[in-house]
Design a protein that fits this description.
Length: 384
Amino acid sequence: MKINNNKLIYFDNASTTRASEEVLKVYNEVHLSSFANPSSIHKEGQRSFYQLNRSKEELLKVLKLNNHEVIYLSGATEANNLAIKGSALRYKNRGNHIITSSYEHPSVLEAFKQLETEFGFKVTYLNPNSDGLITSKEVESALTDKTILVSLMAVNNEIGSINPIEEISNLLEKYPKVIFHVDACQAIGKLEKEINYSKVDLLTISGHKIHGLVGFGALIKKKKIELLPLNSGGGQEYGYRSGTEDLANALALLQSVKDIVNKEKEHYDHVSLLADKLFSYLNSRKDLYELNVPNPINPYIINFSTINRKGSVVVEALSNNNIMVSSTSACHSSKEKGSYVVKALGKEDKISNNTIRVSLDYTNTMEEIDIFISTLDKIIGEIR
C-alpha cells in the first residue's frame, strides 16, 4: 500500500522532537571545553560549577520563576517520580491522601500506584470531563484534611487538552499543606498564552520534547518544599539527585527552553494554520473519523479515532508511506490495548482502541498536511 514519495513526514513530536542545531552546537562546545566535574575543587571544576549555577538562574528567569530552584536529572520520568514519591514520603506525617487524574503520563500513574500499594497511601484518581479537562471544582471536591499532594499535567500528551493550572494553583493556595506538582512537558513553549507557574510547588520539564536532548530534564521546585531523595550518593543537586552533574546537557536544556519560549507566538501561529486545515478535513468526514476532544484548542496535538477501520493498521500503513504518527503515547503503546486516556473520556472501546495522534511542530509544513490528508484518504479507501 505504498502511496507517498520518499519524503519523511514526522508527526510524532509529542513523543520526541529532533534536537536543534543550536542545541547540538551548545552541547558539543561545552562538552569539549568545560568537561570538568562541577564538584571538583580545582579551578576548572569550580568554573563548571559556576556555569551550572548560572544556567539554573537563567532557566528560572526564562520561566519567570523567582522562588524556585532547579534540580537537573535524567528527564521527565525521574522528575515525576522524585516529585511525587519524594514529596509524599517526606510529608506523610501530615496525611496519607494524594490526588491525581486517571489520564496522566505513565510515569505519574505508576508512581501513584506504587505509593498506594506499597506505602499505604489513599489515592483519588480524577476523571477528565468530555473536553478532556480536570476542573478546579473537581480538585476541591476531592480534597480532604488528609490530602498532602495534587499532581496534574498541564497539557495531556495524548489528547492535547489544557488544564486550568493557574486556577487550580489559586485554589490550592488556600490549602497550605497540599503540595501541587505539574508535569509541563507538553506545555512549555507550546501554548497561545503561557501558563504562570509561580504558585506551582513542583514543575517537570524535559528537553527532548522541545528540540533538546534525550535523557535530560529538570524538576523545578519551590525552595521551601523538601523532598525525600530517591537515590543516595554524593549529595549533588541540593542533596536530591546525587551523581556527577552534566554541564553540557544543562546548557543544552537552557538553550532549548530559551529558543522555544522566545518564539512561542510565532510557532503557535504557524502550527495553528496547519491544525486548522487538518481539523477541517476531519470534521468534514465524520463518517470516517471522530475527534476525541470535541472542541480542540491545542493545535500541537490532534487526536482522533477511525470509526470503521483499525487504527493500528492505519498507523502502520501511514508509516509504510513515510508518515510517522502514533496510536497512543509511546511510553505505553506496546503494553496497553488502546488508549486509557481516551477511555477516561468515557469513549466506547471501538473508539479508544482505534486512536490516532498527530502531534505537530513548527518545523512541519502545509505541504506535509496536504500529503497526510491525501495519503490517509487513499489508505482508508483501500483498507477493508
